[in-house]
Amino acid sequence: xxxxxxETIVSLAKRRGFxxxxxxxxxxLGSSWDYGPMGIELYNNVKQAWWRWMVYERDDIExxxxxxxxxxxxxxxxxxxxxxxxxxxxxxxxxxxxxxDKLEQEYRIENNIPWSVAFxxxxxxxxxxxxxxxxxxxxxxxxxxxxxxxxxxxxAEDDPxxxxxxxxxxxxxxxxxxxxxxNTSRRKLPFGVAQIGKSFRNEVTxxxxxxxxxxxxxxEMEYFVKPGEDESAHQEWIDACNQWFQSIGISxxxxxxxxxxxxxxxxxxxxxxxxxxxxxxxxxxxxRQWDELMGIANRxxxxxxxxxxxxxxxxxxxxxxxSTEDLSYFDEQTKQRFYPYVIxxxxxxxxxxxxxLMDAYSEKTNDKGETRVILKLHHSMAPxxxxxxxxxxxxxxxxxxxxxxxxxxxxxxxxxxxxxxxIGKLYARQDEIGTPFCVTVDHxxxxxxxxxxxxxxxxEQERVKVADLATHLRQRFVLEPGQ
Length: 483
Prior knowledge:
Elements: H1 6-15, E1 19-21, E2 33-35, H2 37-56, E3 61-63, H3 72-78, H4 80-83, E4 85-90, E5 97-99, H5 100-111, E6 142-145, E7 149-151, E8 163-165, H6 171-175, H7 178-185, E9 191-200, E10 215-225, H8 230-247, E11 255-259, E12 271-277, E13 291-300, H9 302-306, E14 329-331, E15 336-338, E16 341-348, H10 349-360, E17 361-365, E18 371-375, E19 386-390, H11 396-409, E20 415-417, H12 423-433, E21 437-441, H13 445-448, E22 450-455, E23 461-465, H14 469-476
Parallel strand pairs: 3-9, 19-20, 19-21
Antiparallel strand pairs: 1-2, 4-5, 4-6, 7-8, 9-10, 10-16, 11-12, 12-13, 13-16, 14-15, 17-18, 21-22, 22-23
Helix pairs in contact: 2-10
């Protein structure tokens, strides 16, 4: 079958309890989504797998959970107050609003114009038609800051000093805690600090389901290295992250590395490579099928310098007169003090979940000619690992045995009991939510103390003794990414 598009996943997600439109009974709220019973399990599995790989399986990474609301000065000196914005243009005919850079990017792709060819404003907007009304009549481009503003304190609305922001990224919470982690963990370079947490961006054009939302969770790590060792460390993390996505079940065929050209680089970045996924296979142009799954940036020493009290510019002026700390690093071996370079792998949980759902989606025809959806999730990502099903729910002996088996498996695996339909429908339901194995208790089970174990992907069945069931399932499961 051809690759599914996002609309196919939206239908499956609501039908099977992965993702619901938020505030739906009140008409919803644009770009807001709630994770249902199956979705939150998949969502948590992604975070747990990333944390295990990033923190537990390495010996040079520490964890952190910083505050969502930080001192406003953090965002002043990080540059977010002045530069964290998207360029906006409005269609004067229908008042639709768009990101100017995205319109330009699509224009370049459609017309095979490389980024090395510079446009002179207002081009290319003399040729771009509005997606909604088809007219060409644009406002001038203007910046729009993406940070959500709020206030703290009882007199917040009357006090301009009470202005704060919901954090637009988790990275700054790591940078301002660099010395805290360094001193309490007694680390030496190179080492990293990992964090999973919510971020908020007032996106101009959110959409495409959970691909772009205003509230999202990031899995981010800042890896601190000596200047001069940054380029090799950067490449190592690019290769490692690319392999990790494959280890949790995303096909290599749907992943690619994208080297950001100089024109796209953030002002602090020496080099950035995106791991892209084929989120939009239905699009005609090959380049428009791909978008960012993870960004891996070499941020140089920009962040630690801008948050430190000592650095000066070329004219000898203090870069940060408000800071109380110097975030430099003293190397005991060389007796030198310097600001470490930072390698930053950063991924969104939402986009990882979406990529997993799209990559796992498949269809299969049964012997009756019926098309069934099978979600071939990696075992470690599957919301439910085993479903225990009674062949006859009106037989107390069969029901009791099935429930006892479910209880015995629950401490080892995420297991559920289900008797809300015929066995065919129960199998189909578990296939659609990605359950790797179904265990069926039938009349014969009462006599031979054995059950039928059905495989999600092949639909093959085998008879297994109840006493051997837990061991049998553990042997068949691939629970750890990469195994």
